[in-house]
Amino acid sequence: MMLRKRAWDMMRDEFPTVQDDASLAEAIRVMRQSMVDTPDSQVVVVKNKNGKLVGAINLWKLFKAVKQSVLKDENLKSDGKVDWDQQFANACLICTQLRLDDYLIKNPPILKPNEPILLVLDTFLKSRRDWALVVEGDRVMGVVYVTDVYREMTRDMVQIF
């Protein structure tokens, strides 16, 4: 049964998206909101105004952006007379100014809807990512996470054990 599974069988057709002109703060907000319903959600699809795929931004890229913009070393070093709440609020305002361009994954791992599970797994291994976008034409249809593949694979394996 497992070898009959295709990307579309495992993909999540509801996934977070932002437009390419969104701020870093918007991507963080959208990711956080997505995690309310799907805690293992870890990628935001970035589209242009026409809905065409531009790229993606994942948790690691968001961490990198926050570290470079909000958690700068000079913001953390002080003589002990810093209002940390105000410092953090000021630093977070930086996020509202930053664009996604510098943190965008422009060639995200792509799957075709009918690709079998073994090719899906191969895509994860080759791309060294734990997610891939399911794309047909210019349209992103869904996202597959490595956890989805793991659940599918082990469902059959556990029965055999």
Name the structural class: alpha/beta
CATH class: Alpha Beta
Q: How many distinct domains?
A: 1
CATH-defined superfamily: CBS-domain
Distance between the termini: 15 Å
Count helical runs. 7
Tell me the fraction of residues in β-strands, as a range. Answer: 15-25%
**Roughly what is the average pLDDT, rounded to an integer?**
85
Strand order of the largest sheet: 1-2-3
Order of helices and strands: HEHEEHHHEHEEH
Rg calc = 19 Å
CATH topology: CBS-domain
Low-confidence sequence ranges: none
Largest sheet: 3 strands, mixed
Mind sketching the topology for me?
Elements: H1 7-10, E1 17-19, H2 24-37, E2 43-47, E3 53-58, H3 59-69, H4 73-76, H5 84-97, E4 110-111, H6 117-127, E5 131-136, E6 139-145, H7 146-160
Parallel strand pairs: 1-2, 4-5
Antiparallel strand pairs: 2-3, 5-6
